[in-house]
Fold this sequence. Notes:
This protein is of the alpha/beta class. The protein folds into two domains: 4-207 and 294-321, Aldolase class I (TIM Barrel, Alpha-Beta Barrel); 225-284, no CATH class. The protein has 13 helices and ten strands. It has helices at 4-9, 26-34, 49-62, 82-91, 108-113, 125-134, 157-165, 181-190, 199-202, 211-219, 242-252, 266-275, 298-321, and strands at residues 15-17, 38-42, 68-72, 96-100, 117-122, 138-142, 172-175, 195-197, 225-228, 236-239. The strands form two sheets. The protein has an eight-stranded parallel β-barrel with strand order 1-2-3-4-5-6-7-8, surrounded by five helices. It has a two-stranded antiparallel ribbon with strand order 9-10. The two termini are 22 Å apart. The model has no long low-confidence stretch (mean pLDDT 97). The structure holds flavin mononucleotide. Flavin mononucleotide (FMN) is lined by residues 18-21, 23, 42, 70, 72, 100, 121, 142, 145-148, 175-178, 196-200, 202, 284-286, 288.
Amino acid sequence: MRTRFCDVFGVDYPIVQGGMQWVGRAELVAAVANAGGLGFITALTQPSPEDLVAEISRCRDMTDKPFGVNLTILPSINPPPYAEYRDAIIESGVPVVETAGFNPAEHLPAFAEGGVKVLHKCTSVRHAVKAQELGVDGVSVDGFECAGHPGEDDVPGLVLVPAAAERIDIPMIASGGFGDARGLVAALALGADGINMGTRFVATVEAPVHDNVKRRLVEATERDTELIFRQLRNTARVARNSVSTEVVSRLAAGGAFEDVRDLVAGTRGRKVLEVGDLELGIWTAGQVQGIIHDIPTVAELIDRIVTGARELINDRLAAVVR
Ligand SMILES: Cc1cc2nc3c(=O)[nH]c(=O)nc-3n(C[C@H](O)[C@H](O)[C@H](O)COP(=O)(O)O)c2cc1C
């Protein structure tokens, strides 16, 4: 189970754990690295660039394998010091960064000079093509199914991935809605070189979130997500709960961001993950929860996906063309 993604990014398996606010910490990322995948520490989960450096070093204590850092660049009135986080990533000697949220052009010269490979995550063919032109080393294309920000085009992976594959020559990862061997095989068939998963990794033993959140992902169906901020053109797919449905209805009734600001506060969402009260705030989850049925260790999960994909290709698919 090797693709050119593995060769370019120096990992055993073409399985990526994308950046996840409050979840992408050393414990999870090291577990993904030790299992042969590519995990990303989430830079902005750390309160300062210095804390990020400490988190990277904590992760190094838990694994000898390569791992990366996610830098999510989102428009904001008081932006975090992105350049300082970027420099912390470079100075820490991390081999790869996952950029997301915005055009990474401004940061690419520094990453190139520092020898840091860039995997840019985006939600449309045009943005993937743009990133390729800018010289990134790989792209992740995130379909409408995904947890977090799917963009505003509403194109699911079944179309987005092959459409992007027609235009992308560098290694490409399919993202959004992937959770098992079937997804990996499908992604490869659609023209991708591997998969990125978020929600599936939250429901693992090592994910540093409350067990109630993991159990909820097992219980929830593919219908139990909500798209918030549609009217603000900053759509986010999150778990359905009393808070997310209230946000949807206030905005649908003509409300402005001010009318939901308290409900969507990041501090409330963080608390959900920490204390396990699922109604405390907004928390991120994708439609793939409908096919998550257990809480394995990361090693079990990755082994299951790789072994299952081999079987699927050699048995079920080979039988179809025999
Ligand atoms: C709890 C959670 C938090 C996330 N936070 C971020 C983030 O801070 N930055 C980012 O680029 N993507 C974030 N994502 C998106 C994931 O990296 C990934 O692109 C997405 O989960 C893929 O869709 P899936 O959940 O269907 O696998 C988050 C996803 C989850 C589940």
